[in-house]
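Structure (tokenized):
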């Protein structure tokens, strides 16, 4: 499952949809925090590998993406720290509807993310990058499902990236948010390191395959994969939130 999670995540995000349920099914008696932390260890290896491959083929405006990466790291630390103080249930209930909005908006905007036309580097764009990183980073540290999909949509919609460049930028911010969550949870001793590192190897192989597919077939392929993956995530998150007791 870690292999398939790495493949899916490298293309359009959503690898956690595969990997987290597999962990909970395989280790039903383990503390949830330990399994979620172990998932982060596995995912960060594949995310780094996918980012490395993307950066060989695309060029990113670092003056915008850089602040988003730093803000994502900070936001994820804040989110992980807030988990014990605020209930995640409202987010769990709202997630299917937010994802549905992303799918519908993308579906009815067929030219969205088709061409790479970044909106330049300005203080305003940098501030937008910080806001995106902080917001989605906090969400990732606090809750998590769909983080890659939210980042992908954000870079396409608000910064004028095509889906391929947005996927590359997403991986970089996601590396930062994963590292922040790992640091926070490792300080609490809540990681199964042998399992996480073994899964990381499989996740890296999956990300290798997925990033090759995305780079070979381009933005149109990533857009279609995004629509399919988020649609599945809608159904899975709705089932978890409203039907699974």
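Design, position by position:
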């Amino acid at each position: 499952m870690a292999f398939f999670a790495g493949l899916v995540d490298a293309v359009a995000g959503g690898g956690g949809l595969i990997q987290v349920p597999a962990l909970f099914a395989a280790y039903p008696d383990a503390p949830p925090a330990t399994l979620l932390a172990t998932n982060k260890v596995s995912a960060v290896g594949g995310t780094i590998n996918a980012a490395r491959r993307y950066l060989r083929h695309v060029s990113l405006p670092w003056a915008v993406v850089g602040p988003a990466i730093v803000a994502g790291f900070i936001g994820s630390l804040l989110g992980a720290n807030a988990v014990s103080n605020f209930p995640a249930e409202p987010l769990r209930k709202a997630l299917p509807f937010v994802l549905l909005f992303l799918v519908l908006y993308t579906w009815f905007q067929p030219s969205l993310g088709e061409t790479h036309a970044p909106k330049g580097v300005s203080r305003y764009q940098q501030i937008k990058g910080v806001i995106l990183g902080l917001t989605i980073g906090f969400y990732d540290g606090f809750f998590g499902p769909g983080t890659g999909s939210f980042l992908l949509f954000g870079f396409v919609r608000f910064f004028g990236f095509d889906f391929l460049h947005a996927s590359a930028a997403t991986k970089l911010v996601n590396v930062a948010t994963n590292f922040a969550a790992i640091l926070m949870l490792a300080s609490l001793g809540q990681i199964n390191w042998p399992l996480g590192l073994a899964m990381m190897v499989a996740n890296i192989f999956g990300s290798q395959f997925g990033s090759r597919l995305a780079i070979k077939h381009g933005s149109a392929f990533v857009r279609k994969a995004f629509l399919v993956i988020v649609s599945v995530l809608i159904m899975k998150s709705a089932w978890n939130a409203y039907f699974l007791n």
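Reviewer-requested clarification: The first helix runs from residue 2 to 12. The chain has a mean pLDDT of 86.
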